[in-house]
Specification:
The chain is α+β, with helices and mostly antiparallel strands and 177 residues long. Helix content is 32%, strand content 32%. Strands 3, 4, 6, 8, 9 and 10 form a six-stranded antiparallel sheet that branches. The chain is rod-shaped, with a radius of gyration of 26 Å.
């Protein structure tokens, strides 16, 4: 049996140390990438707010990164309406249940929602009748209403991660890809 020289042992130790360093670098890179993605994570939420004479349907980015809106859909009575809530109120709800004195902000593909931003998608001020109507449509405030519209907003993070928020669905963002 042939004895190994010290050069051979040093070479093997160097190879093992190099492999260990390589695996450590790969592991650290993965941790760094995860941290980078988390540092720009948008977290959209939909909220209803109502008192006696006002109502607001609010979109809030409670994340720490901007959200890039990809798509806004409203599902109502087995149909998908590719429009934001304000347009849905004007085109679908208003002919059924007249809404007057409504303020709104439109959202759609390409809109940027910065971190910490609040957008009043639909609002009524100083009008108890119309605030109650919108409350019943968007929050289920009327227990007799079983045909609530479901709002779906699909958005992306800075790194292209795709997310969806559903009102009357999960109520929490769900990663799509």
């Amino acid at each position: 049996m042939k004895k190994w020289s010290s050069d051979r042992w040093i070479s093997i130790v160097a190879i093992v140390a190099s492999l260990g360093t390589l695996f450590t670098i790969i592991y650290q890179t993965n941790i760094f990438r995860t941290q980078q993605y988390a540092s720009v994570l948008p977290y959209l939420e939909l909220w209803n707010s109502r008192n006696n004479d006002s109502y607001r349907l609010i979109l809030i980015n409670n994340g720490i990164g901007p959200a890039f809106i990809e798509e806004v859909n409203i599902i109502y009575k087995d149909s998908i309406y590719k429009m934001d809530p304000a347009v849905f109120v004007q085109r679908v709800i208003d002919p059924i249940d007249t809404i007057t004195r409504m303020g709104h902000s439109n959202i759609g593909k390409g809109r940027l929602v910065p971190a910490g931003t609040r957008i009043d998608l639909v609002q009524v001020e100083n009008d108890s009748i119309n605030s109650l109507k919108l409350w019943s449509w968007f929050s289920g405030g009327d227990p007799n209403r079983i045909d609530l519209p479901e709002i779906e907003i699909t958005y992306k993070s800075v790194y292209g991660e795709k997310w969806m928020i559903q009102k009357y669905g999960t109520d929490q963002p769900v990663q799509l890809e």
